[in-house]
Amino acid sequence: MKSSAELRTLLRSIDHKGYPAYKSLAGSYQFGSYILSIDHVQGDPFASPSSLHIEILHRDAGFPAAYYDRDYVRIALQDYLTRRMEEQFAAFNFKAKGSGKSGLLSISRCGQEVLERSACEITSQKIIVRFHVGFPAFGRTINAGELDKILFDFLPRCVENGCFARRQDAKRLKAAIDLAEDQHAIRQYLREHQLVAFVANGSVLPRKSGVSDLPMNGSVPFTSPASMETEIRLPHAGLMRGMAVRRGITLIVGGGYHGKSTLLEALQMGVYNHIAGDGREYVITDDTAVKLRAEDGRSIRQADISMFIRDLPNKKDTSCFSTEDASGSTSQAAGVIEGIEAGCGLFLIDEDTSATNFMVRDEFMQQVVSRSQEPITPFLERAVDLYEKAGVSTILVAGSSGAFFYIADTILQMDCYQPVDITARVKALCKEHTAPRTQAPDFTVPVFNRVLRGNGHTNRSGSREAEEAVSGSDSRKSRYDRAGGGRGGKIKTFGTDSFSIDRETVDMRYVEQLADSEQLNALAHLLRYMTEQVLDGRKTMQQAVRQTYDILEKKGWEPFCSSYVPCGLARPRIQELYACLNRFRG
Fold first, then answer.
1. Does the pLDDT at position 364 exceed 80?
2. 574-582 vs 328-341: helix axis angle to the nearest 10?
3. Which of 376, 453, 506, 580 would staple 537 via disulfide (CB 3.0–4.6 Å)?
């Protein structure tokens, strides 16, 4: 390893040379209490910025071991440090002058959720922070003096203020760790008490706008119905009251604009922890929950959808069903089966984004079109089976059909953004009316034995063609170029909508629980790794996903990247990895 003085000497020696001379700086340098590594140098000042990282030993950083000795507090500390570095970089961004991206200083831009990101990684020995720098130039000529400012003035100040315990607001830092411990305690409480969700009294569920995930000012704070209120004693916040949603089938009804979908959206994002001040920091949902919806046009590969669709007029086998262009009802049926395969314990469904004929068939329609002529068994007739035989609960927002009242264990009415438990009143009314006829065929949980094969990217020799990230983490469009040879050339990701591998697009628009574009970046890396290393024509999907996710959990990002780990990756849930594979047409 070289010293910082050697870096400065080398930097001065290439001043005013052509921009490619910057590549000679690649390597690691000791900067007092931290190591600076230049991992990748951009090709010119207008290209995606250079990738760097720093490493600080715990004995130098000074954070208490209790702040990183468990996964949930470690992730909270990583999130805190990433946000601190983002604050520090903002003060120096583009203060060094030049053409193109000269002077850029950036790191992952965190949202309201607390995610595990490659921007900051804490191991048992050290803290690693990854970021991007635009190496300065006049035109395409090196401006060594401006890069000297960044590396020897701006960056040391950012690192000192952002990564060392002695420079942190101790109360603010402790509050972030305490919140993580309280959120973890609620998740444990859910598991121990057969609950699928908890919404604390005083939570602010509405968001500022359709393009802002910040809490809405002046919105009505959430208050639990007395019949569903529970108390949880948390290690730091003390006694907390809120609405507990039990396992089973929960129905949410109410007039338009009264908050039904707002509650469901808060619950679907409750699979993640949120930062203090978000309003949803104590909205906690079973972290295996999957939001279901219709997805016209998606591909389905060898899914057993026979519990919902069978006896097709064309005699097609629905116990091993494939299509390149699914209808809304077929896609939602596949979504249920794929969710069970992914280990889901809770389905979240909004009638507004569901296929009507998949959800329910009313009495009149059943008289007009007989059961023998209708291949679809609606979700109404399967929800109870899903819970009793597969252990999967459902929270459903409905507004057009009262048929769901008969199967619901709990019925909530949203009235001016406040929930009212109307279960007893509605069940009494149900006794005065004839229950809808149900004639669902026998139900068995599908056997999940789908076997995946490589799609032409598999390298049989076992060596993996590496990828390298060359884009800023805050870009709406990210591009990953292959560093090695072989087939194909690029992975591209587009926000949280889609990504492509060698021009094969994976459409993730309707996977609504993706919180950040960096999760999609990570999915692209994971999928590439799977097609090259894991999918061998013998492993089932469950085995392949579990193997891949185990590697991510045990070894981190490194196995999925090239010679360096880029800034700009965020860990997706295992359910999103399943969703990614199920939508990969390759």
1. no
2. 140
3. 453
Q: Which residues pair with 240 in a beta bridge?
A: 232
Q: How far apart are CA 513 and CA 184, in angstroms?
A: 20
397, two tokens:
């927002």
Compute the distance between CA of residue 19 and CA of residue 17 in angstroms, rounded to an integer: 6
Express each pLDDT in 244-299 by its tens digit. Answer: 999 999 999 999 889 999 999 999 999 999 999 999 999 999 999 999 999 999 99
Element (H, E) at 541: helix 541-555
CB atoms within 10 A of CB 186: 22
Which run of H or E residues covers position 521? helix 517-529
pLDDT number for residue 214:
95
**pLDDT score at 501:** 84
3-state per-residue secondary structure call for 199-262: EECCCCCCEEECCEEEECCCCCCCCCCHHHEEEEEECCCEEEEEEEEECCEEEEEECCCCCHHH
pLDDT category, 380, cuts 50, 70, 90?
very high
Contact call for residues 97 and 166 (beta carbons, < 8 A): no
- Tell me the two tokens of residue 348: 């979240």
Structural domains of the chain, with CATH: 2-168 (no CATH), 247-448 (3.40.50), 451-582 (no CATH)
Nearest alpha carbon to residue 130 among 584, 460, 557, 496? 557
CA distance 494 to 448: 31
41 contacts: CB under 8 Å, gap ≥ 6: 22, 23, 25, 26, 50, 135
- 428 contacts 405 by C-beta, under 8 angstroms: no
The CA-based angle 211-216-218, given to 5 degrees, is 155
Q: Please say whether the beta carbons of 49 and 42 come within 8 A.
A: yes
